[in-house]
Write a structure and sequence with these properties.
Blueprint: E1 2-6, H1 11-22, E2 26-31, H2 38-43, E3 46-49, H3 58-61, E4 67-70, H4 82-100, E5 104-110, H5 120-134, E6 139-144, H6 150-160, E7 164-168, H7 179-189, E8 198-202, H8 210-221, E9 226-230, H9 232-242, H10 249-255, H11 258-261, H12 272-278, H13 288-320, H14 322-330
Parallel strand pairs: 1-2, 1-4, 2-3, 4-5, 5-6, 6-8, 7-9
Helix pairs in contact: 1-7, 4-5, 6-8, 8-13, 9-10
Bound molecules: NADP nicotinamide-adenine-dinucleotide phosphate.
Length: about 325
């Protein structure tokens, strides 16, 4: 079976690639830059240069492909818009997959997308789900809430570096999940026939509010967070203002996502049936506590080692210092 992974250089995509390679799949990755994707080649994947927004590049990438796991999404740093990548690009990929006779298509959506039709990425995910379901391909949709990996940049690093941690007024609790666990489900779906033409929520063991995560980070790091509260109305005003300018559309579309986080409604779902269907154990899913414990434990150990090395170097320098030596001689 040749498995094509799209978005394999991303946070989730790389874990999907790793898992699939480890499970013995022949993995091909569609990448925009072979330089950025060099690590995937080292892991044993075949690289094919391509771009969702250049449909002519998809045909060659799909030759001989049995299944696709699509983990691509528009990058905030890219000039391409959410609509160009997550809608036009995905429609092109689904059409190309159908034409190439691909047998399975695994798609990552966002939990509760249908509840936020005014949020561009949510509406695009909802429409893509529908488009995929009507394409005639055998599909599995996995609806995600958030990644544990995202918490490091959002809370971990700012708290360790005494930088502000931004939170909106009422923040919705989110059931974050480790991308390694998400990857396990995505690859498993390829071998579980019951998952064909179905959509499942895929979320962590429980939902956490921003305040709870901050408290936990403070406890684990021994540092106090500098919390900066961003009023939701200010964000809405900025978003509305940016819509006046074409260059601001992409930023405005991303800011719209704060509506989801500030809605106060938890991004969470029951996973009982999902574990049963996929034949996986909830006990083996990484919890947010254990993930952050491991992260802070590693960083605090490193910081202690650095402090120790610094103190040792200072001591040695002082010993070698000619000033010290001469003062010793004179005394
Ligand atoms: N992050 C979250 O918290 C979250 C929550 C819910 C759902 N999801 C979904 O999970 C999936 C993975 O998200 P992620 O955060 O792991 O993504 P990510 O880290 O931002 O990575 C995006 C990937 O898409 C690729 N890509 C972007 N534009 C492309 C194009 N035009 N053609 C081909 N590839 C392109 C990027 O390649 P380059 O390296 O070339 O840029 C990169 O590999 C997405 O479907 C996302 O919507 C994410």
């Amino acid at each position: 079976m040749t498995l094509l992974i799209v978005g394999a250089t991303g946070t989730l995509g790389r874990q999907v690639a790793r898992r699939a390679i480890d499970e013995g799949y022949k993995v091909r990755c569609l990448v925009r830059s072979t330089k950025r994707a060099a690590f995937l080649k080292e892991w044993g994947a075949e690289l094919v240069r391509g771009d969702l927004c250049k449909p002519e590049t998809l045909t060659e990438a799909l030759t001989g492909v049995t299944a696709i796991i699509d983990a691509a999404t528009s990058r905030p740093t890219d000039s391409l818009t959410i609509k160009q990548v997550d809608w036009d690009g995905k429609v092109a990929l689904i059409q190309a997959a159908k034409a190439a006779g691909v047998e399975r298509f695994i798609f990552f959506s966002i939990l509760d997308a249908e509840k936020y039709q005014d949020v561009p990425l949510m509406e695009i995910k909802r429409c893509t789900e529908l488009y995929l379901a009507e394409s005639g391909l055998n599909y599995t949709i996995l609806r995600l809430a958030g990644f544990l990996q995202g918490l490091i940049g959002q809370y971990g690093i700012p708290i360790l570096e005494n930088q502000p941690v931004w939170v909106t007024g009422a923040s919705s609790p989110v059931a974050y999940m480790d991308t390694l666990d998400i990857a396990k489900f995505a690859v498993r779906a390829l071998n579980v026939p019951e998952t064909q033409n179905q959509a499942y929520p895929l979320v962590g063991t429980r939902a956490w509010s921003a305040e709870e995560i901050i408290n936990l980070c403070e406890r684990l790091s021994g540092k106090e967070a500098k919390i900066t509260r961003m009023p939701i109305n200010l964000l809405r005003a900025v978003q509305g203002f940016l819509r006046f300018f074409q260059w601001g559309w992409n930023v405005a579309d991303r800011l719209a996502f704060t509506e989801v986080v500030a809605s106060g409604k938890p991004l969470n779902a029951s996973m009982e049936q999902v574990y049963t269907v996929f034949g996986l154990e909830q006990e083996q899913t990484t919890t947010l506590e254990s993930y952050l414990q491991e992260y802070f434990g590693r960083i605090m150990k490193k910081l202690k080692e650095l402090d120790y090395d610094k103190a040792k170097n200072k001591k040695q320098k002082n010993k070698k210092s000619p000033m010290k030596q001469s003062s010793k001689v004179n005394s």
